[in-house]
Amino acid sequence: MSHKYELGTTPPAGARDAVHVAIFAATARHSLAGGEPVRMTSHDKVPGYVTRCDMANAIGVADPFATFIEAGTPFWVVLKPGTVTNLRHEWDHPQLDAAKPAPAPALDADLTTENARLKKELKDAKAKISKLDEECEELSGGCRGC
Predict the structure, then answer these.
(1) What are the C-alpha distances in Å from 19 to residues 70, 96, 103?
(2) Tell me, what DSSP letter sits at residue 55?
(3) What is residue 142's DSSP assignment?
(4) Angle in degrees, CA 118, 123, 129, rounded to 5
(5) ∠ Cα 15 17 23 (to 5°)
């Protein structure tokens, strides 16, 4: 029995299915959260660069299983249901197939600076957590959770 269930619609209660989902590798122009809607950048002639947007203008969403995607980092984009014109393990999509491969543009200097700042903040936060863990262990006599 064949059902036509589609992601983004409300399924009948108890329904089950397995679906093909078209994905492509993209590069983030900005830091993104997993599941965030994305569109091709204004550099449409350079395939694979995306930026955040509202769902109405999205080509798809950033990898919903990723928690944080740094600017300039490759990641998977899950294409919106119903937008792929030919789906198998190879597929076609009008926005991606029309673009000709070209060298990727450099990230804006302010994005690179912001990315470096966020990396430093993350490193500092991890160091603080590690120090607090050590202090907690000392104060508890080495018995964490007792």
Answers:
(1) 28, 21, 34
(2) G
(3) T
(4) 125
(5) 135
The token duo for 133 is 């863990």
**pTM higher than 0.85 for the full model?**
no
pLDDT tens-digit readout, 84-109: 887 766 777 777 776 555 555 566 66
Amino acid letter at 106?
A
What are the residue boundaries of the structural domains of the chain, listed by start? Answer: 1-105, 108-146
List the helix and strand counts (H, then E) for the chain: 2, 9
pLDDT, residue 16, reads 75
Alpha helices (H) along the chain = 94-97, 109-139
Q: What is the pLDDT of residues 14-65, one digit of tens each?
A: 777 777 788 989 999 889 999 999 998 865 555 678 999 999 999 999 999 9
CA distance 22 to 88: 8
